[in-house]
């Protein structure tokens, strides 16, 4: 009897793992096609599970979005840590920018999820956002101090550049060449030797200012002076 119960329990756990995996795959597909505001029921249908099963695994949309793109978010966090540790500040900056753009290109639902992770005002998420902004500012200042990054580059310019690339991959999801060319253009424009004439004043855009529209695109909420 005990063996039967143990086997039944193992099967239930295996079924639960399979259901979870199907839900996460379906979520990435649905979010890529319809944005992260797509109905949860659409994710459940794509995964072949009931809505109740979906909510049992992921009680909120936020929990589902974060789980669906957990690997990508971890990759971004690791890339930022590695960029800060790189003895060559420009190389660290360049690799971070290229990594995030590559993730935007490869996983169409990720750009919206990436930005959606930051306006959250709960304590843990707000702290993560503030830490990320501090680290990005540190990375920018180090690259400028090394004479590699143009002196008038502002940390908010990095967000503007990522949003620009996001717009391209959203409009042309299969045009890898266009994505890579834009990334190369942007990186060249960031270099100190490209600063032949001053830029207009920077935006006050921060991570908390970039909400996600219903179609999954990013639209700045405000540009505070």
Strand and helix layout:
Layout: H1 2-34, H2 40-47, H3 51-57, H4 61-68, H5 70-85, H6 89-106, H7 110-116, H8 123-145, H9 155-171, H10 176-190
Protein name: TetR/AcrR family transcriptional regulator
Keywords: DNA-binding, Transcription, Transcription regulation
Region (Disordered): 201-225
Question: What is this entry, summarized?
Answer:
Residues 17-76 form the HTH tetR-type domain. The chain is 68% helix and 0% strand.
Task: Describe the model.
The structure is a single chain. By secondary structure, the chain is mainly α. It folds into 2 domains: 63 residues, Tetracycline Repressor, domain 2 (Orthogonal Bundle), CATH 1.10.357; 141 residues, Tetracycline Repressor, domain 2, CATH 1.10.357.10. The chain contains 10 helices and no strands. It holds the Pfam family TetR_N. InterPro entries: Homeodomain-like_sf (IPR009057), HTH-type_TetR-like_transc_reg (IPR050109), HTH_TetR (IPR001647), Tet_transcr_reg_TetR-rel_C_sf (IPR036271), TetR_SbtR-like_C (IPR049445). This is TetR/AcrR family transcriptional regulator. Keywords: DNA-binding, Transcription, Transcription regulation.
CATH-derived architecture of the largest domain:
Orthogonal Bundle
Low-pLDDT windows of residues: 211-225
The domain count comes to 2
Helix content: 55-70%
**Binned strand content:** under 5%
Distance between the termini: 71 Å
Task: Please summarize the sheet with the most strands.
Answer: none
Q: Return the CATH class of the largest domain.
A: Mainly Alpha
Elements, N to C (H/E): HHHHHHHHHH
Please state the average pLDDT score: 81
CATH superfamily of the largest domain: Tetracycline Repressor, domain 2
Give me the count of strands. Answer: 0
Number of helices: 10
Domain HTH tetR-type: 17-76
Protein name: TetR/AcrR family transcriptional regulator
InterPro entries: Homeodomain-like_sf (IPR009057), HTH-type_TetR-like_transc_reg (IPR050109), HTH_TetR (IPR001647), Tet_transcr_reg_TetR-rel_C_sf (IPR036271), TetR_SbtR-like_C (IPR049445)
Organism: Microbispora hainanensis
